[in-house]
Amino acid sequence: MKLVLFDLDGTLIAFRKPVKHESPGDENKWTHAIRTVFHKNADINFDYDGRLDKQILWMATEPLGISKKEFNEKLPLLQHAMYAYYVRHGKNKKPYAIDGAQRLISFIKQRDDIVFGLLTGNITEIALWKLRTCGYDGQFTFGLFGEEADDRIALAQSVFQQANEYFHREFSPQNVVVIGDTLHDIRCGKAIGAYTIGVTQKGKDQQDILEKEGADLVVDSLMDQKVLDFLKVNPV
User: Is the pTM of this model over 0.85?
Assistant: First the structure.
């Protein structure tokens, strides 16, 4: 039995309108949540690519003098505020399902020797909203989400306990596959001994980055024959 873990943004879904990287002082889902819950203004003045939502929230909150204990106690409120903000503004980004990913999932769903789930930095509520919006509603019943660990590698390391309990099976590293579009996805997959597949959306530069990070397979589409052969999927 294989367990295939998909990243979300850039792997399962994309955005028709480019996602703007905020400048310090810009309002975004993280700073909105911090202002709503703690009544303080925070800046995202660091590189947040590849980080979990919880991790980003804490990195922005800690300089404000909030203790880790209070932060953890208020985390559910922060998540709810993030979700409310994202639903108000998320449709402007026009998220859509990436065709190759959607088709691959439709085929592996028919297999009784493959199960799949999410491995995403998004908090649960936002991830599920994106899935519903992009036509994946109800397809992902298992996932690891951005409020469940302090960093992406720790989140990936939790997969064995969580997946074993959820699927009532013992998964070994060699039977886990991590699929993503960034070096962070490949890095966390390698950290748990999983087979890693990098999917490119940005051309040759992204391909070079994924290959340099050590991805076992790099493709332009998840319907690439090499992916189908590896998963033993026959799209007929």
Answer: yes
